[in-house]
Amino acid sequence: MGGVIEAVFCPYHVIYMAHCGLTRISVPELMSITKNLPFEWLVGLRYTRAGRRSGRNSFISFISLISMAGIGLGVAALIVVLSVMNGFQKEVTDRMLSVLAHIEVFDARGAMPDWQAAAREAFKNPEVKGAAPFVVTQGMLLRDDELRPSVIRGVLPEEEPKVSDVAAQTKRGNFNDLKPGAFNIVLGIELARALHASLGDKVTLALAQGQITPAGVLPRLRSFTVVGIFEAGHNEFDSALAFIHMQDAEKLMRLDAPSGLRLKLVDMHRAPQVALALKSSMSGDLMMRDWSKNNANWFAAVQTEKRMMFIILTLIIAVAAFNLVSTLVMTVTDKQADIAILRTLGASPRSIMKIFMIQGALVGILGTAFGVAGGVLVALNIDVIVPFIERVLGVQFLSKDVYLISAVPSDLRWSDVSRIGGVAVVLAFLATIYPSWWAARVKPAEALRYE
Known about the structure:
By secondary structure, the chain is α+β, with helices and mostly antiparallel strands. It is built from 19 helices and ten strands. A six-stranded mixed barrel has the order 2-3-8-5-7-6. A hairpin with a 2-residue loop joins strand 2 and strand 3. The radius of gyration is 35 Å and the shape is elongated. The protein starts with a helix and ends with a helix. Residues 1-31 and 50-55 have low confidence and may be disordered.
């Protein structure tokens, strides 16, 4: 009797549940559930589940499963691809910054006589943790018949480790053998290979600043002894960069002071902001150049590639969302009699829309959740997965002879994960609008005419 009374309070809830085959639980139990969960959710959940009463229902649920898998695959692929691209960017950036300074400070006069005072002013900013003077010029290195353009950087060996890792990257020889007046030189490994130079060999440096002689203007030449070979892991520096002592560089360039100051920061990503702060806090007419400006073209290219990859792979999710549209349209066509029964029992068009929007949203959310879980799992374990695939297939994706990086890096960023998940859910929700609107326009009389 209690069940009958409760059915009166919510008649079309109970009758429709019985029609859909949900009568395995008693009416009071069903009513206790509906106190907390609207009937639209119950029906939407029912449609999302695999149908057991007819092959047609099972087929529609199978299509829903395919749509869910498509969304999950697209989300997982996008997370993994962006994580790998972030990993490559981080790896290359770290190798670049092992040689480059985070910020370079130049004096507008062309030289910085009191670099120690400038360094003390820079250290007043808590984000600066290292400073070292430098002199930089361009020239040609010659040995026998080989000639290579090079960037020559004059440094103090005892100060350079505060702003770069070149001393630790010296594979042969000793970086500290750069003595003032000895005219020694440390070469990048590719530059040394191109010049066929090894430790103890002589190389000749030709500077563009020529000297006037009776025979005309001749380039300034100076012989150097190779005392070290470093490997930064970045071809741009390994093939074109060389280090000499700062006093030797000043003598060659006829300077009385270093060109400027190189700074290392606690957080390299704040280099532009710190550069602006230092420009206003340090005395003198100074010019600041941070590492992102030195490589602006490279970073712009990487960001463009990431954006294009995001757009391309988002199309995979969009295709799965279109599959979801077709799934919901088929469901609406198959459930027209059910929709008509609900309408005759008092359900509003808005409730009908909610049922199918809930069904589509659930498919989208579940697919996104599975995709996020799978993508995060792969991205966090790509250093294990890729070597396993290489061993099984007997191939190597990144050959050490061709690429500087022999392992596939990954840098998972949760901001990317949340953005990808949000896009997938929004696309799935948008895919439910038209089928739900169409379901709400079903006319009960026409739907029940042939039932």
